[in-house]
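Ticket #4471: structure export looks truncated?
Reporter: QA, pipeline team
Priority: medium

Steps to reproduce: submit the single chain below to the structure queue and open the exported record.
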Amino acid sequence: MMLVQQMRRVFGCDVLRSQKGVSLHRLIRHSSSTGSSPVSAPSAVDLAFLHFPATGTGSATNADNDTPVVFVHGLMGSAVNYRTLCRKPALSGPRDVFSIDLRNHGASPHDPDVSLHAMAADIAAFAQARGLSRVHIVGHSLGGRAAMATAILFPELVHRLIVVDIAPADYAAAGNEVSKSSFAVLKAMSRMDLVTLSSGADGKTGGNRKALDEALAREGIQDPFVRGFALQNCLFDGQQWRWRVGLDELIAGYVRVSCVCPSVLSLIHISEPTRPRLI
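Actual output as written to the record:
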């Protein structure tokens, strides 16, 4: 109940289960009583994703058992994080399951707009392009924030919402240690000299992942698990190490990633016919 009350306070509406019907290109405007300008819709990018088609092996236990599920990863993650889970017959048996790469992550395009509003627009456009009128969304960490924003901005799309390891709170403003450490990891990654690390001691090009790990440790990231997770984003293209995550974009816009973006979400007004119902 405390989580629901917090979401009401921050987002200004009830969450989490939407009514039937979908209108993904509906322009969501601030309540006319406030006199504020409309919230402009950001341009969506074409998200990369993994698709796990329904196998028909599951058993239908309720009316919405075949509703597709969309998994949304956290900061510096990617669609492959949920590959094993998505393949489980209990999940992908009766329904299609998708795992997406958020903008500036995985194989999705890099874009300077790292706002939750933009991420929600991406998810809505992804669903519409595949004819998905209603979905369940599972979001972890940053993906949970993007999922919550999607439920607020596109309530007709989100049937059920599962948010993991995150709350609708302004972690940056609160000086949260996790928020600080995540930013520190991004900055440490950006300081690594990938050109030099792409060449071995003999001057020949080579992909030495151990050298990457040691370099990130020298930049102050002492936890080997954190280094390993971060370095999943460093790929060798045959000539040089390259970051697949949009480091510059995420660092420049980190405040928008780690806060609730009240400049967008607090302006949203959802009319009663489409207001989500509490689960």
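Status: closed, not a bug. The export was complete when the record was re-opened. Leaving a note from the reviewer for reference: The CA atoms of residues 102 and 108 lie 6 Å apart.
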